[in-house]
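Researcher: Here's the sequence for the chain we discussed earlier.
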Amino acid sequence: VTAFLLNRSSDLIMYINANKKNIFAYTGARDHQSEQQSVVFVHGTGMDHTVWVLPARFFARHQYNVLATDLPGHGRSEGPPPDTIEYMADEVVAAMDGANIEKAALVGHSMGSLVTLALAARYPERTRSLALIGTAVPMAVHKSLLSSAAQNDHAAIDMLTYWGYSKAAQLGGNENPGMWMIGGTLRLLERSDDDVIHAGLAACNTYNTGMVHADAVQCPTLFILGTRDIMTPARAGKELAKVITGARVELLEGTGHSLMMERPNDVLDALITVV
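Model: Thanks. This is the structure I predict for it:
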């Protein structure tokens, strides 16, 4: 891991040379300060740092260092996509090293929640607190979705988008004006290179150490779950929360799997309590 390179623009961004790959990260348009605490965000399958713009900008403007990375092979980051959750966790740690972040609050959504769970369990000295959004262990993936993703069939993107939102969200009406939830998710997933979505889904499907990792977590932990989530049902997230000592659960009524898009303000309010 080498020192990070800053690319200054209206939105401060960062390229980190981690494990011989250039990894892209969003910083919330703020320089990192050594005296500030840090927050690291990890996205879900086929996505990138853009799903974290609202909380990233909020925490950056409230005296936190922010690192919202694109996992290898995702977004603007180089390298093949990692094929296991543990490998992804190691890549996030490498990015933290490159950004000179010794310890951070970890925030992950969907696949990213498994990555942060594994990171918190395996690197407790690097974790200040943990927020798991839209999570479940095991995170089984439907065989039709896996098959379509393996063929790079657009049907996989359609399924992820359709299943990722509550029925109400599919009718529109986002609480933040100007956001098209369904269309935005479709376009984001369509930007993925071939095999990236399948690699993420397969990693989720084969991750079988989640309960062991949960039992090893030692930091304050918050679960943010949607009551209408059919991809990672809230009941599964609540069962996982029972394994982590002192974990809290925040249920968002009527919300599907794409919680940051459906209820961005409520997700941010919940994150403020643990970050």
